Amino acid sequence: MSYIEENKAAWEEAFEHRRPGWGEKDHERLLGESLPFFCPDVAKELRRMDYTGRAVAQFCCNNGRELLSLMGLGPAEGVGFDIAENIIAQAVDTAEKAGVRNCRFVACNILDIPPEYHGRFDLIFFTIGAITWFEDLNPLFRVVSDCLKPGGVLLIHDFHPVMNMLPLPGEPEFDAGDLNRVAHSYFRTEPWLENEGMGYLSEQYPSKTFTSFSHTMAAILNAVSGAGLTFVRLDEYDYDVGLTDAYDQKGFPLSYLLRAEKRP
Predict the structure, then answer these.
(1) 166 — alpha (psi -120 to 50), left (phi > 0) or beta?
(2) Arithmetic mean of pLDDT, 8-29
């Protein structure tokens, strides 16, 4: 079994161990708020775009709440792709409850997105922690390029690679009195292996193995460029977007927003 197949099994198991009510009321925020599941800097970037008649997609969409949030800005079509079938089922349920009819969800390996979606999207986006599940970013961004229309936009909002160097609260290396301490190499090549569930959605339990990977900023930019996408802008922020606020405003780049476009 490949690490991708193992991750699929681990994610689906984690969803079965989800905390009571996790994701079940997302439709309420979708009905009452504008872009409720994006941080202000990303929401500002998304509001700059014209979605009239446009098709958008989220790769590694999880339970669909971010894509469904974006649909409130008026795209003609939305498609979310994720490997975990039971999490995709929740996305479908949330869309129905929120009354979003022009958005669908597909359970598949992102690297195996069917050719019917090639050249279909004006915007493809990844959010927090998505690209870490791919050992090699080159085939990932080639799929992105295949699925974008000429002139289409790629957005990535994610943890900054520097976050992989810093020990998190609960780890043996973490010292609240010494937040300048580095625990891991920026150039780490060995995978991260976790067997304690998926903290943000599930209880802690002896889980199937999650395998993820570190990527330097150079690796990300080179893979984007190598897929025929033109790098447009990179914004870096001194706040974290989901792991810990221990390092916020301490001088570290903790998150970023990258924009690229497919060459005509």
Answers:
(1) beta
(2) 98
